[in-house]
Design goal:
The protein is of the alpha+beta class. It is about 30% helix and about 20% strand. Helix 3 crosses helix 5 and helix 4 crosses helix 5.
Length: about 190
């Protein structure tokens, strides 16, 4: 597979089919509990086990072509947004990063897993705090529900939240100016 960044640099990534088959098998999605201030507990899919380091062979080449860590995050999002389309998924049925990339589609949990996997694959991001942020996208400051997951990244110079399903730069950073009340899980 050939990946292109926003500067049209090419990166080549391959995976044997037998290895792909090993990565995309999962019997049951693990869950975790989120506690609301009201005392209500909601179970949600725990997507952390789906995040690996499947792109180690190529991802440092992307990082090494860029000026800053922030631009690295942008380029990873740019590649994912160019290679995938948003598909509405009813329920929590996450795909592994490789599945989302190969299928070229996914919803919020799929693209958050893909981008987190790509970021975790770099030797330059070992000390970064990368978190899955679960929240109510309809009521981000007063959650009534948990219906969305985004990605929080702190690379040492600041923290920001990215919308992994975004197709425009404005939507990519849409959560940064909102005091989201949500739940986070480290990946």
């Amino acid at each position: 597979m050939t990946l292109f960044d926003s500067k049209n640099n090419e990166y080549f990534w391959t995976m044997p089919v037998s290895l792909y088959d090993k990565f995309v098998k999962w019997d049951k999605v693990p869950t975790t509990s989120m506690l609301f201030d009201s005392g209500e507990v909601i179970k949600v899919g725990d997507f952390r086990p789906f995040v690996g380091t499947n792109f180690q062979a190529v991802i440092d080449d992307v990082y090494d072509n860029l000026e800053s860590p922030d631009y690295f995050v942008f380029e990873i999002w740019y590649m994912v947004s160019a290679l995938t389309i948003y598909s509405i998924d009813i329920g929590e049925d996450p795909s592994f990063a490789i599945e989302t990339l190969v299928r070229g589609e996914g919803d919020c949990e799929d693209t958050v897993i893909l981008i987190a996997d790509m970021l975790r694959s770099s030797s330059h991001t070992k000390d970064w705090e990368i978190k899955l942020i679960y929240f109510d996208s309809d009521n981000p400051t007063n959650p009534q529900n948990i219906n969305h997951v985004a990605l929080s990244i702190d690379e040492g110079d600041g923290r920001y939240i990215i919308e992994t399903t975004a197709k425009t730069i404005e939507d990519f950073t849409m959560w940064n100016n909102i005091d989201i009340i949500g739940w986070s899980l480290d990946v």
